[in-house]
Each structure stands twice: as structure tokens, then as C-alpha cells.
Specification:
mainly alpha, globular, single chain, 0% strand, 65 residues, 4 helices
């Protein structure tokens, strides 16, 4: 998913939109939404609060550059 999709999904979730509706709008599966919420919270996201770049950023790539 793109950073824009992840940001949109978090925004919709914070507004109380159901996961099935978020999936229809963003294309993000419910399991991916749950994983996004957990990852964003580990990065400092508070549901209902502002969404920062680091909350939805891509994870660093493993391995040699």
C-alpha cells in the first residue's frame, strides 16, 4: 500500500468508519489495517490524534544496499 492509502485508512479509522468501509475505499484488507494500526501506535500514533509521516512511513529495507 502507498503512504497515501495508509494515511487515508488511519484518518477514516479515527473518524469511526468501519473496517469493511475502509477496505472498500482504500483497498486495504482488514488484516493489513490491524497491522497498520499496531505499527503506527508503536511509532507514537495516538488514535484520533494527528498523523505524522513517521507513523505511516515505509519500513527500512533489510540487507545490503
Amino acid at each position: 500500500t502507498s503512504i497515501a492509502q495508509r494515511t487515508q485508512a488511519l484518518t477514516l479509522h479515527s473518524l469511526g468508519v468501519k473496517a469493511s468501509e475502509i477496505e472498500a475505499i482504500t483497498g486495504m484488507k482488514k488484516s493489513a489495517l490491524r497491522a497498520l494500526l499496531l505499527r503506527a501506535q508503536k511509532r507514537g500514533y495516538v488514535p484520533g490524534g494527528p498523523i505524522k509521516d513517521e507513523h505511516v512511513a515505509n519500513a527500512p529495507k533489510a540487507g545490503r544496499p
